[in-house]
Amino acid sequence: MIAGFTAVKELSGTLVCAQDISGDVGKIRRMRNGFFLVMLLLIPFLAAGINVVVKTVLRQFYRIIDAIKRVQTGDLSVVIEDCGTDEMGELGSQVNKMLTEINHLMKEQIDKELLVKNSEIKALQNQINAHFIYNVLESIKMMAEIEEQYDISDAVTTLGKLLRYSMHWTAGTVTVAEEIEYIKNYLKLMNIRFDYEIYLSLNIPDRIYAQQIPKMSLQPIVENAIYHGIEQMAEDTNIYIKGLIEGNDCIIEITDAGRGMSEEEVARLYKKISGEIETTGGSGNGIGLKNVQDRIKMNFGEEYGIEIASKLGCYTKIMVRIPLKAEG
Q: What is the value of pTM for the model shown?
């Protein structure tokens, strides 16, 4: 029941009104129970629908999570496909870039370690034979001097200097001056072998002479110039070595007046040096220049290395770029 009252002055009394609302309350209760029943029936369908929507919207997110879990197990070959253009797609693209960079850095590190190991093995092999070779050369030199064959004695002395420099790898780098001295000894021996003369012309500032450079990084270029540019001509010629300072870099140019190369040959040599074409044993394979390029980049960074300029029938110029170290 619901009751209400109000005072009525005219009647000097109170008006009271009472009404039965049990029917209305029952109706409200039935509506409430019906609502709860409908909600109980709808909740599973709503949950399933929301789950489908969430999975659809976050599918790319779950794929990225799965890729990261695979990376954590050591699988770096993971690639997230169909990244899309939304925020999740951008995240997937960045993960792909990160994995590509990690693989690139790992390959670079493996190549560097392999190069160092190969150098150490070669150095060890050279050291094993070094003392025996020095003793033999010293004996030959003494025999030549006894017979007053001073040309032979000088040649043996030069060869000894050459071998001593190439076999001792106590340091990975030397000064440009030391490398040039080695080249001079190398050319002395080459001129004994040939019927013609190879002259060495130098134009190098003192500051560049004092620069550090990976050992045996200029001599292979000179050797390459002789075997592939000069030897086929078989006539007196020159090799020019020039040093230039360019900003914070120094450039060492090695030029031979040999047969030169065509543009196609230069392009192919660049591919061999960069590793796009595999270099194997054999003449003219570019492995010497590739070794020089790899060691310069390993020591100084990717922005340094060698460049090639050539004209068929005229010349070939190899430019070695290294960082300019402060004086002192």
A: 0.56
